[in-house]
Amino acid sequence: MSFATTRTARWRGYLSTAFRWQRGRQGSGYDKMLLFTARWPIPFDSYLIRYPDGAYIPPHTDPVQDGRHYRLNIILKSPQAGGEFVCATPIYATRRIKLFRPDACEHSVTRVEGGSRYVLSVGWIRK
Fold it and tell me: Where is the Fe2OG dioxygenase domain (predicted)?
């Protein structure tokens, strides 16, 4: 397959999934919307994540094959209760900003109660 064909296939793949709500891979009630992604110069992705009432994320890590995985989460809307990000060793954390290594630190989100939670999430891999 030529470089141009590969690039076209990737572009079509991106367009088929970008800006559309999809179920989160944890199967715990959250949805994600791919905003932007690129493989060069630094591989990254960005998502809008929606946690409706009752959604949560169980404790897990996100291993990568090569390099270090970083993720910056910005909480855009918090629920009335729950929806708390849990990570033992974040790089930086305030009420609304969370920077952490999802490949190195187990992380989770507690069950959302009363309302919804929205997060802008940007991740990248550093070789």
Answer: 39-127
Q: What are the two backbone dihedrals, phi and then psi, of residue 46, each rounded to the nearest 5 degrees?
A: -140, 135
User: Which amino acid, one-letter code, is at 66?
Assistant: D
pLDDT value at residue 18: 85
How far apart (Å, rounded) are the C-alpha atoms in residues 85 and 79? 12
Judge contact between 108 and 56, C-beta under 8 A.
yes
Neighbour-count burial of 112, counting CB atoms closer than 10 A to its CB (0-12 exposed, 13-18 middle, 19+ buried):
buried
Full domain range(s) for residue 43: 3-126
**Residue at token pair 């290594």:** 101
Name the one residue in this structure whose structure tokens are 């932007």.
Answer: 36
Confidence of residue 25 (pLDDT cuts 50, 70, 90): confident
Q: Could you give the number of structural domains in the chain?
A: 1
Q: What span, in angstroms and rounded, lies between the C-alpha atoms of 31 and 21?
A: 6
pTM over 0.85: yes
Residue 28 DSSP class: S
Give me the CATH number covering residue 96: 2.60.120.10
